[in-house]
Amino acid sequence: IEEEASIDSLGEFVGAHHWTQMKQKCGLTIDRSFDPRLLCYSLLSLPDGLSADIEVLHLSPSIVLFHNVISPSERRQLILAAKNLVRPALIQNSTTQQHHVSDSRVVNGTFLPMEKYPITHRLANIVRSLTGFNVDCAELFNVLFYERGGHYSIHHDALILPTQSWTQALLEEMYTNARNCWEGTASWLLAIDCAYFLVRDVLNKWRSGRLRRFYQQRIDSPTRAQLGNRLATFMFYVDVPSAGGGTLFPQLNLTVNADAGDAILWFNIFPNGTNDYDTIHGACPVVHGSKKVATMWIRQRDQTFSLLCPLERAKAFAVEDFTGRILGQM
Ligand SMILES: O=C(O)CCC(=O)C(=O)O
Ligand SMILES: [Fe+2]
Predict the structure, then answer these.
(1) Number of domains in the chain
(2) Residue nearest atom 4 of ligand 1, based on CA coordinates
(3) Which residue is closest in CA terms to ligand 1's atom 7?
(4) pLDDT for residue 34 is more than 50
(5) Pocket around ligand 1: residues whose beta carbon is below 6 Å from it?
(6) Are residues 38 and 147 in the same domain?
(7) CATH number (domain holding residue 22)
(8) Phi, psi (5° rounding) for residue 37?
(9) b/e burial code for range 119-133 (CB count within 10 A of at least 16 → b)
(10) ipTM of the prediction
């Protein structure tokens, strides 16, 4: 990468410490000659008169890029809808459930209410047509505006959905939090600091007698039970920066620098429902220009006829598991 386009040329920016070890990977480019199975399919005559080129970026877990699926006018409408609503993005502490501003997510964002903005229906239809997924149970579009120095450090999109006993829920969450501490900070000192707060939080709950109730409530939470986990993430690139701001999947050594109008899809869980941490990802710091994305988290509920059932339930989804139906019609 050119010197002036590199993250180092940004100088100081909020949350820079999250990128000390990851920033090299932000400069990765996709080697399209690497694997002959990384094909680009042309999907013609999809529902709603859509067509699209879909490029397989990674096989297992499957990550695909849809080229040029929203028009400049649709991009403008989306930006107009979100412009006055965006606020500094919050992150939810999975231990305390509190939302707070964090230097690990430096971006302005908003969820877009569907009833107010017709453009969101259009985009939801596009997701449905391109993926075959049921989007009725999906979350509202989350629109993010990144400016120079904006970023979103490495994280995983799936929710921690404890399923069995409250003790198992506690263990699962402690494990995930410890992992996030480590992967989110990339420095032993900060990770120890982060782990200390997590342990202190659990001890406080235990002392106040809330430990069991807290985790039991999360197991019984109706939204979780009704909608399931975030099966997949579908994200439109509404505006792209001229340097930096790629979507980085560090476990897969993949950094995606898409064009405005493209969209990406990846899975957050295995077919058996457990979280697939190979798809941890982040938004690299924007170096020049600004970046805008619109994300839809697709839930597990009601995907009965939109997913094949892979025989190996503990292996990541393959591209055929969801395009099988669409490609089979060609
Ligand atoms: O902006 C990006 O490239 C990634 C955004 C993201 O990971 C998220 O919204 O969950
Ligand atoms: Fe994400």
Answers:
(1) 2
(2) 283
(3) 282
(4) yes
(5) 144, 152, 157, 247, 281, 283, 293, 295
(6) yes
(7) 2.60.120.620
(8) -85, -5
(9) bbeebbebbbbbbbb
(10) 0.99
